[in-house]
Specification:
By secondary structure, the protein is α+β, with helices and mostly antiparallel strands. The chain has helices at about 65-80, 90-100; strands at about 10-20, 25-30. The protein has two helices and two strands. Helix 1 (about 65-80) packs across helix 2. The longest helix is centred in the last third of the chain and has 16 residues, at about 65-80. Bound molecules: zinc ion.
Length: about 100
Amino acid sequence: MCMLPRFRSKSVRKIDRKGLGKKAKFRYVRKAGRGACCSICGAVLAGAKSSSRPSRIFGGALCPKCSLYIIKLAGKIKGGNMKLEDVDLGRREFVRCLVGQ
Ligand SMILES: [Zn+2]
């Protein structure tokens, strides 16, 4: 059995397959990676890797709930009802993208 460098990775697992007769055979299968998820709440993003990707703002990065909340916060800041410093750190960078400060 050869142990090529690409098969030594932790993201590759070995599967036993039966060969002809009593021959032992192996197959290497790459483990499935973590799917796309929202960077604020961690919800799994639907369609982030499909052919019909969400083209809205923060599509593929944030879930619809979180992006709506960010847009609302940006509106409050633009209207002068809130300051950027009042937004918590996890959301501040996204709000800054919209506000442009
Ligand atoms: Zn979210």
